[in-house]
Amino acid sequence: MLLREIERYYVDTRYELFTSTRSVDNIRLYEKLGYKIFDEKKITDELVFVYMEKMPVKIIEKRGRGYVGICFWKADRENYSWWRL
To answer: pLDDT averaged over consecutive 10-residue blocks of the chain (85 residues)?
Structure first.
């Protein structure tokens, strides 16, 4: 899939795309790939664009008190998890 190849080539990058609200299947596909809607823009009464983004997954190592943790920063900007190794 072209979109995955782009993401694989440009690592640690914020991705943004837009599509029409009529493209329900495309929106569903993009959501499955980790994209979230962050804006809408009404073009005409019949045409509305949905803007979607995917934030990079950052892996951050944290050391302290005898353990190493890894933080996975997920696409919704606010959700992250620390995992102990």
So the answer is: 83 88 94 93 95 77 55 46 40
